[in-house]
Amino acid sequence: MAASSFVRVSNVIIRNLTIRDTRMPDDDPGDDGYDYDAIQMDTANRIWTDNVTARITIHHNWFRNTKTRSPSVDNVAYGHLYNNYLQNVGFGSHVRGSSKTVIENSYFDGVRDPYYVTGSAELAQRGNTVINSYGPPAG
Question: Coiled-coil regions in this chain (predicted)?
Answer without folding.
Answer: none
